[in-house]
Fold:
Amino acid sequence: MRYIVIGAGAVGGAIGGRLAQTGHEVVLVARGAHYTALRDRGLRLITPDGPHTHHLPTVDGPAALGDLRPDDVLLLAVKTQDTEAALVTWGPAPVAGGGTAAERLPVVCAQNGVESQRLALRRFRRVYGVCVWLPSTFIEPGVVSAAGTPLTGMLHLGRYSHGTDDTAHRIAADLERSWFEAPVVPDVQRWQYAKLLGNLGNALEAVSGPIDSAPARDLFARVRAEGERVLDAAGIPYASDEEQREARGDRITLVPLDGVPRGGGSSWQSLTRGTGTIEADHLNGEIALLGRLHDVPTPLNELLQRLANTFAREHKEAGSLPVAKLLRMADDAVAQGEIHASHDGR
Structure:
């Protein structure tokens, strides 16, 4: 199989680089300065076992490849807010022998949240979900790092919305030969919703910095508890913290990397890079959506969603909102929510 990595940033670059390192055929898809760097200098992937430079075919869209191959796998690793544009671009791409990518090829959604695979299924017949646990960072155009050892990450994989098949097992086998744990599971959404609960802290980290103080940890616990109440009300199952810890075990330990500054998660990286967008609508916003559908108040997640979007839109500095101020805003949001609920008769 040939892997076409659509969005060769932190996650896509780490997966694509590791696959290439074990001899798999990989095409990288990027845009802007990152595309130019990958095309001209190759992908530099910095890992605990050393830096590796991979000179791989790099394109900015399907036209550069001509007809796609029947054995191609589209690995979608863009941020969720960029998913629709990627699907519109790649879905109609012709495949050798007839048909289009949307009709014939598997698309594997290696992204945070749960929305991308729903979007993909509107266009693609064969959609796979991945629960991504892969600590990685976009350093600069052409350079990404992945600090996990002895394995680079854990990627639970399955058909969307449920089930497994031979394609999933073949992809997992390739990943497991490439420094990943890749369990094939029939209930991949259960793992993705568990990851979503953890990702609710991405916006908090992005606007107020690392969640390493008692007040920040307390606020995150409240945000997560709000998410759990929503999932429980919606009847959506999710893997427990204990189950996740047992699955990871000591397979992935983060280590400092020489010359690589310590960075934050995906939302923090979006603000630092000044992309102008952030994925909060599909993380905290997913909880807000489900809360409205099931009549569960979500004032804390709505606050973080709003703040993260403001920071991205106005290019505010990542981590610049003091936690003490955010806590006051959170308490105000909860109080206002209680007032609105009483007015609504709840």
In short: The mean pLDDT is 95. The two ends are 55 Å apart (CA to CA). Residues 214-234 form the longest helix (21 residues). The chain is about 45% helix and 20% strand.
